[in-house]
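A.,

Following up on our hallway conversation. Structure tokens first:
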């Protein structure tokens, strides 16, 4: 279908990320502020039927990929019903999860063809994992990752790199790609409300590649797929690969095709955008939202919602916390 959601820079938007909930069974400090967040009231959250109907609207406007996120999407009640219905649309359906509950859904995912799963995993150290997540699910997460790989799922590990926390594990993660088809995505630490961001805690692409080459020698740059959010690499002889999402030092915005829909039905043009468009309210009134969606994307700025390299705290502190956006 011809894309109809096109911004003023000529970028067609065909990839929709839907946050199913702002609830999560982990408490990662870079995602959830220490003081917690004010959880959305149930009446304000999209019902499963509303998610399905709104998704159909986006698909009719040219969206061909939908990724389900959270919070933690697998804690959403009646999740099975939702993914069964979404799998009937002419889209590629993907999932981002913390991995805790994957064992409950592998059979379902195989049945409906949801084979692309991103698992957020910031450390391979069990004790450190408990420090980052404030919970102790490490063994279950690791077992689910290995089971997913062995069952043929395309597993990507999302690793938010934070200096002094997990930057010494870069090569440990890359080593996972040696004998199995797993991809690792290193993500620069990004600023959101309440996560105490500053770039002194960040690790750049240049640093990551220097560390990787010191251990593995030859690191080959791979062709990046269209609309890729990462620069991708592979160690010679490894089955898997690793990528670097350098949102801060080298943003991928020029080819962006992504739209975000929060659990309470607000459309965000960019992860960093403060402005949001209420899609849910007019939908509940029975109004068409097609033109609203197309008009909203025309307000999209070219890069990071206009934030410069300094990443002004006045702007990102007025955004939502990461857990209530959907990553």
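Then the amino acids I'd put at each of the 327 positions:
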């Amino acid at each position: 279908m011809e894309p109809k959601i096109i911004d003023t820079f000529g970028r067609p938007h065909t990839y929709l990320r839907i946050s199913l909930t702002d609830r999560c069974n982990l408490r990662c400090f870079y995602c959830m502020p220490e003081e917690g967040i004010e959880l959305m009231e149930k009446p304000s959250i999209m019902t499963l039927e509303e998610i399905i109907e709104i998704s159909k609207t986006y698909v009719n406007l040219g969206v061909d990929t939908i990724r389900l996120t959270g919070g933690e999407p697998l804690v959403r009640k009646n999740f099975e019903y939702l993914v069964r219905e979404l799998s009937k649309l002419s889209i590629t359906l993907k999932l981002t999860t913390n991995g805790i509950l994957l064992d409950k859904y592998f059979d379902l995912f195989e049945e409906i063809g949801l084979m692309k799963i991103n698992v957020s995993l910031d450390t391979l150290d069990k004790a450190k994992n408990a420090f980052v997540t404030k919970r102790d699910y490490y063994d279950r997460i690791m077992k689910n990752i290995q089971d997913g790989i062995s069952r043929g799922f395309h597993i990507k590990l999302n690793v938010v790199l934070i200096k002094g926390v997990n930057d010494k594990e870069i090569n440990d993660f890359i080593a996972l790609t040696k004998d199995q088809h797993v991809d690792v995505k290193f993500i620069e630490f990004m600023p959101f409300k309440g996560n105490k961001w500053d770039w002194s805690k960040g690790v750049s692409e240049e640093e990551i590649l220097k560390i990787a080459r010191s251990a593995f020698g030859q690191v080959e740059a791979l062709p990046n797929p269209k609309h890729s959010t990462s620069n991708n690499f592979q160690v010679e002889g490894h089955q898997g690969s690793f990528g670097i999402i350098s949102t801060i030092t080298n943003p991928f915005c020029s080819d962006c095709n992504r739209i975000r829909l929060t659990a309470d039905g607000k459309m965000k043009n960019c992860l960093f955008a403060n402005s949001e468009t209420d899609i849910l309210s007019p939908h509940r009134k029975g109004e068409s939202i097609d033109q609203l969606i197309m008009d909203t994307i025309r307000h999209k700025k070219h890069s990071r919602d206009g934030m410069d390299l300094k990443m002004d705290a006045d702007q990102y502190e007025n955004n939502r916390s990461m857990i209530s956006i959907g990553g």
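The chain has a mean pLDDT of 90. Curious whether your intuition agrees with the design.

B.
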